[in-house]
Amino acid sequence: MPLPRTVELKDGRTAVVRAAEPRDAVAWIANFQSVAAERIYVMTEQFSRTPEEIRTQFARADPERELWLVAEADGRLVGGANVQRGAWRKNAHTASLGVAIVHAHRGRGIGEALVRALIDWARERGILRLKLGVFATNVAAIRLYEKLGFREEARLPGEVLLDGRPVDEVLMVLRP
After folding, report:
1. What CATH topology corresponds to 5-128?
2. Which residues does 164 contact at the CB level (< 8 Å), separation at least 6?
3. 87: Cβ–Cβ under 8 A, 6 or more apart, which residues?
4. What residue ranges in 93-150 does DSSP mark as E strands?
5. pTM given for the model
6. CB-side neighbour CA atoms (13 Å) of 153
7. How far is residue 84's CA from residue 95's CA, in Å, rounded to a whole number?
8. Which residues, including other chains, have CB under 8 Å from residue 77's CB and lie 6 or more apart?
């Protein structure tokens, strides 16, 4: 299904999933910073890139190698996702993805819409292995990824510390 996509959410409202554009840079950063500030979903706790760097990244994105998405709902950017193909000939058949949804909009179907769009992109490009890492404590995300066909391939025990407590990183793979 091509982009942009209008998707119906679980609460009956709609969201639009579309390719990120340079004008989205400030909102993209704010979205990611809000997720990072929770300190329990992503590795970093502070986004260090500037709006200009993100604008350039979105403007120069090679559509065969990467896709940057945003989700808009209720008149604002509420989620972002990306997928990047392996950089070398030996791993160009693989791609890694990441997703960040602001707290108030989780559980509505936005993450699913974003990940489905990333899977479609991977399939269209002949990607054989789509991978991600997720903290074992993020049960809702793991359930979503499993629903979409991802399977746990490895587990890194105690890979991260959340509030001083060791938590496993779960490595999941989909073979589109």
Report:
1. Aminopeptidase (3.40.630)
2. none
3. none
4. 94-101, 129-135
5. 0.94
6. 13
7. 5
8. 24, 27, 28, 30, 31, 70, 71
Mean pLDDT per 10-residue section of the chain, whose length is 176 residues: 89 95 96 90 84 96 96 94 96 96 94 97 97 97 97 97 96 96
**At how many degrees (to 10) do helices 139-147 and 110-124 cross?**
40
Domain ranges in the chain? 5-128
Helix (H) or strand (E) holding 162, with range, is: strand 151-162
What is the residue whose two structure tokens read 């409202």?
Answer: 13
pLDDT value, residue 46: 75
Helix, strand or coil, per DSSP, at residue 129: strand
Strand duo 76-85 + 94-101: pairing: antiparallel
Q: How would you classify the pairing of strands 5-8 and 76-85?
A: unpaired
Element (H, E) at 28: helix 25-37
Neighbouring CB atoms inside 10 A of 28's CB total 26
